[in-house]
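User: Please fill in residues for this 460-position structure.
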């Protein structure tokens, strides 16, 4: 836990002005899963400027089936005391793998960022909107009247280190607190404020809730929810049963209340009428050219890693064509990851190669890196997949461009040609912004969604 530090005049002429520490309990569906500590402080440097700093440390244990993944983060934000103009961000995050280190700095109105994992770095920069604020500082920048009036403002996301826009609205409660709703990329987040202090925040109807630990305890019934993220986010087929989904060649879905318009059309799924989606595993007509990011190494699919390159060369040696190379790589990944589990969240492909551990995300990252190292363009695909019980779970798979056409690959299930009992929600890119968009597309799809299978056919 971060504790306030008593600071005195030093050789650098900095001195302590103000500090405030808030501790939050983190819960999922009513069950406590972790804690977050925020420390605010104001300091003056030798140049006389005042700097507002927010240091946040959090850790939670997220159940995923029989496994539990520990998610931890340590972030420091610095901004101008008066205008809240962002100055710097620095921190680390870990989800069962090597830490991701991130930093950013405002340099004359241009925000320059860097993310590093396993020695690989990702650099970016963007012009900073003059009214921009760190997301975590928005309640210090805007006052009660501004929230009640409603509007929009630019924010820097601490997760992706990119600038975006949020809209906000609020209402005053009888006890003097303020109920504020921020809408970020289509995701509503609800807050309860007392002055400028957040007492409570909630996303997806109680899926994740932060509650100020110093609030008086209220007597409530024992929590009946589950801390298993897999169970809390699964969807159930309310239509025709599909006994062997891994053999499905064509599937017709009706999707209700999911923001249907945000679901992408791809080579393997098309919107046919109303809220109806037709999915196919047929790659015969899927010949669109690869995008640059389909061939690039990044901090997760690190295809430029020497270990990945050596492994790829060994796997595809002597293969007569790219399709055979893809088959060999998919088979290798399935067998190589011998410890199938849900313990990790942001492992790079080279980490997976060494640890032989992971779930669908690790299978997909390793497949993508090996294939790209072998000269085969690959997409990271995120969506939902149906199991034989008619349940849809969030899933990660690939599309590989081999011998002039795209082929759906699911190394998690040892499939070098994946089935159609799945819905694509997003494609992963090569940077932090695209990875954040994946998470947001999943959250949007969760909102009061119902899925009906209206028809299907099996492979011949």
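Assistant: Residues filled in for all 460 positions:
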């Amino acid at each position: 836990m971060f504790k306030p530090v008593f600071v005195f005049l030093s050789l650098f002429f900095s001195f302590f002005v103000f500090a405030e520490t808030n501790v939050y309990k983190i819960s999922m569906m009513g069950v406590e899963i972790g804690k977050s500590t925020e420390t605010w402080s104001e300091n003056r440097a030798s140049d006389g400027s005042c700097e507002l700093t927010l240091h946040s440390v959090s850790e939670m244990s997220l159940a995923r089936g029989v496994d539990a993944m520990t998610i931890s983060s340590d972030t420091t934000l610095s901004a101008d005391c008066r205008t809240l103009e962002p100055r710097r961000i620095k921190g680390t995050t870990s989800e069962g793998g090597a830490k991701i280190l991130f930093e950013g700095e405002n340099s004359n109105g241009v925000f320059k960022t860097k993310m590093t994992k396993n020695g690989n770095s990702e650099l970016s920069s963007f012009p900073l909107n003059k009214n921009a604020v760190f997301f975590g500082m928005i309640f210090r920048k805007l006052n009660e009247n501004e929230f009640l009036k409603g509007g929009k403002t630019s924010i820097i996301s601490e997760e992706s280190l990119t600038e975006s826009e949020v809209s906000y609205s609020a209402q005053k409660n009888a006890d003097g607190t303020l109920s504020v709703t921020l809408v970020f990329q289509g995701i509503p987040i609800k807050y309860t404020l007392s002055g400028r202090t957040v007492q409570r925040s909630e996303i997806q109807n109680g899926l994740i809730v932060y509650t100020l630990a110093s609030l008086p305890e209220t007597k409530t019934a024992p929590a009946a929810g589950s801390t298993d993220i897999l169970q809390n986010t699964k969807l159930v087929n309310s239509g025709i049963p599909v006994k062997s989904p891994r053999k499905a060649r064509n599937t017709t879905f009706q999707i209700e209340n999911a923001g249907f318009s945000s679901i992408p059309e791809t080579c393997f799924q098309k919107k046919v009428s109303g809220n109806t989606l037709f999915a196919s595993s047929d790659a015969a007509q899927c010949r669109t050219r690869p995008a640059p990011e389909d061939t690039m190494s990044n901090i997760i699919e690190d295809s430029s890693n020497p270990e990945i390159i050596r492994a790829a060369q060994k796997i595809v040696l002597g293969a007569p064509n790219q399709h055979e190379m893809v088959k060999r790589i998919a088979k290798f990944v399935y067998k190589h990851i011998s410890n199938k589990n849900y313990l990790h969240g942001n492992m790079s492909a080279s980490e997976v190669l060494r640890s032989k551990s992971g779930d669908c995300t690790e299978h997909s990252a390793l497949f993508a890196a090996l294939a790209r190292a072998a000269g085969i363009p690959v997409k990271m695909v995120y969506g939902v997949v149906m199991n034989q019980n008619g349940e849809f779970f969030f899933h990660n798979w690939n599309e590989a461009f081999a011998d002039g056409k795209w082929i759906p690959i699911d190394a998690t299930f040892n499939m070098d040609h994946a089935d159609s009992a799945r819905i694509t929600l997003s494609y992963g890119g090569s940077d932090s912004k695209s990875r954040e968009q994946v998470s947001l597309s999943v959250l949007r799809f969760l909102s009061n969604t119902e899925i009906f299978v209206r028809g299907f056919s099996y492979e011949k």
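For context: The domain at 234-458 is CATH 3.10.620.30 (C8orf32 fold).
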